[in-house]
Amino acid sequence: MDVISDQNWVLSVGTFLPLAGVLVMLLIPKREELLHKQIALITALATLAVGIYTLVQFDYGQAQSLQFYASTEWITVINSGYTIGLDGISLPLYFLSMVITVLVMIYSWDHIPSPGNPKAFLILMLVLQTGMAGTFIAQDLILFFVFFEVVLLPMYFMIGVWGGEQRQYASLKFFLYTMFGSALMLVAFLALFYQTGRESFSIPFLVENGINIDEDVALWIFAGMFIGFAVKVPMFPFHTWLPDAHTQAPTQGSVILAAILLKLGTYGFVRIAIPILPQAAVKWAPVIGVLAVIGIIYGALGCLAQSDMKRLIAFSSVAHMGFVMLGISTLTATGINAALFGMVAHGLITGMLFFCAGSIKERYHTLEIKRLSGMLIQMPKLGWILGFCAMASLGLPGLAGFWGEFPAILSAYNPAPQLDVTLFRTLMVIAALGTVLAAAYLLWLYQRTAFGEPNPEFTGHGHAHAVGAAGNDEHHSDIHDVNIYEWVAWTPLLIAIVVFGVYPQLMFKVMDPAVTQLVGVFNP
Amino acid sequence: MIASLLAAAGDWVAPTLDYHALAPEIILAAGIFAVLSIDLFLEPEQRWITSALSGFVMLGALVTVGTLAVIGDDTRSMFGGRYVSDEYALILKALFLVAGYIVVLMSSDEIERGRYHQGEYYVLLLTSVLGMVMMASSRDLLSIFVALELLSIPAYMLAAWNKRNSRGNEAGVKYYLLGVFASAITLYGMSLLYGVTGTTLLTDLGSAITANGRFSGVEVIAVAFIVVGFAFKISAVPFHQWAPDVYEGAPTPITAFLSVASKAAGFVALVTLTFVAFPNAEDVYQPFMWVLAALSMTIGNLYALRQTNIVRMLAYSSVSQGGFILMPLTVAGVDGVGESALKAVVVYLVVYAATNLGAFAVVIAVARKTRSGEISSYGGLFGYAPALGVLMTIFLASLAGIPPLGGWFAKFGAFKAVLDADTGWGYSIAIIAAINTVISAAYYITVMREIWMKDEPTGDTTPIRTPPSLGAALVITCGATIVLGVLPDIVGRFGDITDLTGALGR
Amino acid sequence: MSQFLRDYLTVVWFGAIALVLGGLLLGVAALLRPNKPTAQKLIAYESGVDPVGDGWSQSQVRYYIFALLFVIFDIEAVFIFPWATQVERYGAFGLVVMLIFLILLLDGLAYAWKKGVLRWV
């Protein structure tokens, strides 16, 4: 793997800049709420500026090599280094994490969830940002592991403190699942280290040497990483933490979780598991493919059974990540390109859906689909935005979601030569059915919530039941259309969904060289 | 008769003393003398002087450890190799002195409130630290035993400090009786060893044991007894029963001291003996330590899960952490693993000291307000004392081994050492340890949940005033916990602590 | 049985002998001795004098402190005598070392004095 070491300070600055903001905020008393919001936003914007600089300076002609590459000694006793770099695979995700953080900060301006305390909330978010960005730039397994884990505690507290009613249960479940997964992952990393001669944890080094590992051993090591990453994705059957975590997390937490955290798992497959152990990947690919398709169908059916809007979106994540994993399991350039595109698209779209859900919850104090209706009459703009996102999510051509799903299905028609064609074509057919189900649950959701007459419970002049009467006055006064903070936070996402939908080449051309190099090993 | 004995001694030559190498011990001894004497002439309102002076004594000794580390990189050996100041000894001396200093910081406010015997408190503390500092350098059965007693006897008295309280009395008596029992067993083992080999010098013992190719029964008993004796000191299961009661009954700064410094001293003795005296006895001590480590981790964790009192929880957690520290020693005799096992133990001790002292400092700070040791009294801590809440979270997360805090690297090193060995014993203990890591996360997270997600049980949310010395202790421990996690090389690369193993040319 | 386990066999023997020996002595004694308890026999033994009052009574702790001080200086003498016979050979080094020892002891005495231990109230 080639490396380009020009301007190698860029990534470190982009990753650790949020921590500078954290340090400043720690020194300010927590009652200065406005100041905290300002500092957090400025930090996030400064980080984004570094991100944009990275984007501009990135050499797109050599997207397959690691750029801004830096490597220094870190933990010499185990030959682990502070090795960072960015290539076409990680660039979109790295940048996306920065964008999402800024947008979430803007959204937080007037949406700090109960019990308040913006200082702590925003500090956790900035720490999260460091962890996420660090995971995408790490080119050393130990460094990757450390950043991967940095994300754990802030998210745990974000769900556990600012979440919904079942927050303690949901956060504990999230914590234990992830902890279990990462323990296995670490064992797998250690095994890789030993099996390649105890020389280095550097990913480029392991990519060169991992192929020589005995196949039986490689299968086991891959299994360890598989579970570690699959928990994070989450793949069926490790997905059960997701609906709880998503439903209970505050809006901002759900958005970050959906947009970035889930991608850490899929990114791990593409960056670590498959390139380092291609011999095991070929053996495991059918398993991944089958589980992915089960995830698609199971997620879709799960959606149809939900009565809570946020839970429905959470289950749709399971289905969408199924498409991503299906693309990865084909081990072809098309499939992995589609998967990477799907990761970003899902980040944009599902992130947006969670924003909508959060705003709806704020206005109606409920997300029960039964009780919501006529949103288009009461809040036409929010209603249209929700419709737009639902369309994007179900994979309407012309919007970003399409380019994640369609090529992934297509690639299953023609998987890597080592794989069983019949199996993957079967999977393709089932996955295609999954898109129909996706259309069904999303349109159904939209029809029930946006169409029709507003529920008299929320209009304020309906003769409500005696029980609901007391709460009525507070309720309907809250119901207003999209406000300015929401517009600022959402517009970039909405534009991105359209832009990538109309001109997907924008992203494909960044990722393709790196992906082609990655799958080269499967097409000798 | 005495005359004939003396005549037999032959010409007497004064030993050459390396005063620089002994400087930490000399400063501590002079400090003990000074604190004890000055305290006699102090008015009650001037008593803070003893605490300040004790802190300065620790720091002064620490400075000389620093100069020893910087000036002259060779090993300094005295009394024919019975007292050695090498890098291994220096790291641990620094550890004991810093731990002692932090305990002084934690105590100054706590003991002032008690209003009695402040001078004696610090004298005893300094004496115990002196014993530990000696332990790090001792390379002879006798000096090890003297150091052990010197550090233990003051500790017995300190454990009983709350003498008006029945729990305090229980702590003192229990600790004393079991400690003396353990010392007796150790001494019995040592005497057997001396009887068989005719030497007390560790390096000689190393070559004398199994000189004829196989163990004699007495050697087995001797090694086993010595290990058992120190297992009491490090509260390894099944010799741990004293720990929770003593930790609960002793004043909290002393609990921190016992769970960190005193435990570390036990490990130091064990490590020195393992590597220098028993290099050929691995068949005896390895399985023995395997059992101790596995039991300590598992039983310690299972009991910790059930505790409702934070100090008892930390006590059982420290039993379980002790199992992790023992883990590398279970493979210490495998060829080529010695060095990474030794490093793993030392690194673990350093990280564990920083983290655990920090956790106890938070316990002291919180108890100032809540007057309670119940875990439920931590409810809502984050709301009214956010700094303490975050600090406790950091310490607990480090104990649980979550990156990027120090604990992860300590655990990682221990795992790496046993996996390095590539033996069945190594793999099996690694699996047990992995399971225990997850179990331990459960009870650490229970406390975090109280801090962050529950409400203050009594509704009293006045902020906690942390005295400056306690604040300093918190800053030092928290800084160390984070820095050790982010840049583990600071301890991981501490020169070649192979001098110790190198002494025998292994 | 492996070599290693055989090594441990010694420990087992050792423990077994300890148990057997202890059990034997107590057991034989229990079998041989006549057992005819009377009220007189069961009272606490106080060197032949009839016990007076409760067994759990407070005693003066001062006795022990005095005894302790006495023992300390007794031991000191044990160290000093042999040193004194050979003081020329030890030279200045020996003198300094002994002085340090004595000063430490004196400090202890001063401490006891100041704390009022020497007063018999």
Structure description:
The complex is a heterotrimer of chains A (524), B (506) and C (121). Chain A is mostly helical. Chain A is 73% helix and 3% strand. Chain A has helices at 10-26, 33-57, 90-108, 118-137, 141-150, 152-162, 167-195, 203-209, 215-232, 241-248, 251-276, 278-304, 309-329, 333-364, 375-378, 380-393, 400-413, 421-450, 456-459, 466-478, 484-502, 505-519, and strands at residues 67-75, 80-86. In chain A, α3 (90-108) runs antiparallel to α4. Chain A is globular. Chain B is built from 21 helices and two strands. Chain B is mainly α and 506 residues long. The radius of gyration of chain B is 22 Å and the shape is globular. Residues 502-506 of chain B have low confidence and may be disordered. Chain B has a domain at 286-506. Chain B has a two-stranded antiparallel ribbon with strand order 1-2. Chain C is mainly α and 121 residues long. Chain C is built from four helices and no strands. In chain C, α3 (62-85) runs antiparallel to α4. Chain C starts with a helix and ends in a 7-residue tail after the last helix. The A-B interface holds A 30, 73-78, 115, 117, 119-120, 145-146, 149-150, 152-153, 156-157, 160-161, 167-168, 171-172, 175-176, 179-180, 183, 186-187, 190, 194 and B 340, 343, 382-383, 386, 393, 397, 402-404, 408-409, 412-413, 415-416, 419, 434, 437-438, 441-442, 445, 449, 452-453, 487-489, 492-493.
